[in-house]
Amino acid sequence: MNPDIKRERENATFNVETLTNILDGSPQKTKRRREIESLVLNDPDFWEDDPNFLSRSERYDQAVRKSAQMILKLREYGISDPDEIYCYKNCVHPNRAEPLDLHLGMFLPTLLNQATSEQMDRFFMPAWNLEIIGTYAQTEMGHGTHLRGLETTATYDPSTQEFVLNSPTISSIKWWPGGLGKTSNHAIVLAQLYTQGKCHGLHAFIVPIRDIKTHEPLPGIVVGDIGPKFGFNEIDNGFLKLENVRIPRENMLMKYAKVEPDGAYVKPPSSKLTYGTMVFIRSLIVGTSAKAVAKSSTIAIRYSTVRRQSEIRPGQPEPQILDYQTQQYKLFPVLAMAYAFTFVGQYMTQTYQRITGDINEGDFSELPELHALSAGLKAFTTWAANSAIEVCRMSCGGHGYSRSSALPDIYTEFTPSCTYEGENTVMMLQTARYLVKSYRLAKNGQQLSGIVSYLNDAGRGRVQPQTV
Amino acid sequence: SSRPIVVDVNDLSSLVEVYKLRAAILVELAAKNIQQDMQRRKSEEDAWNNNAIDLVKASDAHCHYVVVKLFTDKLGEIGDTGVHSVLSTLALLYTLHGIALNSGDFLQAGLLSVPQMLQISVRIKDLLSQLRPNAVALVDAFNFTDRTLNSVLGRYDGNVYDNMYEWARRSPLNSTEVHKSFHKYLKPLRAKL
User: Fold this and answer.
1) CB-CB under 8 Å, B67 with A380
2) Could you tell me if A323 and A317 are in contact, meaning their C-beta atoms sit under 8 angstroms apart?
3) Quick one: which of A389, A391, A452, B57 has the fewest CB in 10 Å?
4) What ipTM does the predicted assembly reach?
């Protein structure tokens, strides 16, 4: 042990383990997390070649091997709790996304939240057993966060009771979904629904894209990898072009909106339900921001205690970098941010689970607030975290630039979260729409509740600085 | 009134209140600007686009308030004195640092005065010194294993330089003492010069 870092630990004024328990949620959760970590870390099946020294194709190959092992081991150990699966996955693929992320994080949750019981019977077990490997294809080459602008069409044909899916333009080609390029054989495709001559907006459809046995692309499907990116080296983010692809009526996710066999359209109770999976992911991203900042600050602060350079007082030995006030000013606000975002992440997960429970009971009243809060906090935390990681890298001097520091990887793996699942400025404007709407309601005498209740006073002209 | 409200820069609940007022004022400002534009016969959509910067600022202030409030609320759940004390210091730093970075909003709205901003800047420096002895313990509490952190600089044992040297030695460029490019390009080039 380096003597400087040893001495730092001896000087602490609080019990580290107690704080770890608070961050995990309880001592039992800390214990269980460590059990799961040691399962992975002591398992030779997960040993790997250092990805820093591999090509992209080799990195993808290694990641698929580890993901396949991961699925087997999760079954073997009977790990089925989503939090525990997430923890296991994070140990298998530290600091990076993996080829089955979209299958586990979006395809399965979308089925759970938006499929009818008949659809669950058809799709869930094959997906659970990876006969079906799925992804979530929403973004198009020319259209991202503005969902009403998506161009992919699903036109209902009552004569065959099928939907015909098309990518009518180049800009409508699905672009970016993780695992779409080479890994998945199914995709949940978001497309504009046309039936009885009318467009009913965006709906989700389960589309087979590759043969389950041979993995060859199916007729009418043009699919592939979009090429190297800034980070995300382990993932085959893909493109998908649909050319008159026919799928049965039962492949539209119909828990809420429906198309009857004759083509009649039944509206969902809330138009926002189609985007439920995105809200789920946005809620998770808040916690991911916290993790990225926590990792970066751990690296930068530990290194700043063992790194000795320059001098504060002439003739004295080189001090620890962390003794410089400027270094503290760079790193301690980042450390504080890591804690703040961790607690906000815990709150978002609890709030998402509570409101989703209400939705399942038929109460949609808090859905708009959840939408606004998850959009805003996703943008706020990812923007701040993105800058904070860079501050940590810069505070490590030249060595922060080396891939051995892990900071470049943390940065490039995290940065896309500012644009995926909703570009941040657009997210902020969505939150603003809710805030302005709430303000106007308060102004008209309506009593607001929840996190915007502070606007009750603003609406009635009572928000003013008070005199001393 | 243009005079600031009473704010104790050491009192978190008072600071949360200031963040709340800042958010409310910025939301109100954005909403009023949209309203004014609409009264000048602009469509609601154009009025919205014309005030998009204010709207993003309002959302940002709202989110900042939510973060500060949740951090402060969390402190109420922590019973251990040592942990409570160090997290309170962190929460205060986060809150004051946010005010310092967005001082224009707080000053413009009359929520804080210039002398208070100077007081905040001094207080931030106090908090940095206060946190210094606990910095490593605070990151240790995140409890990342060396394998999950995967960083030579962030190693738990702090033995950075010898491991960095070892890591560099594993670079594929070092698999042979003389790289093939020397024979392919540099040596023939030399012969031609």
Assistant:
1) yes
2) no
3) A391
4) 0.95
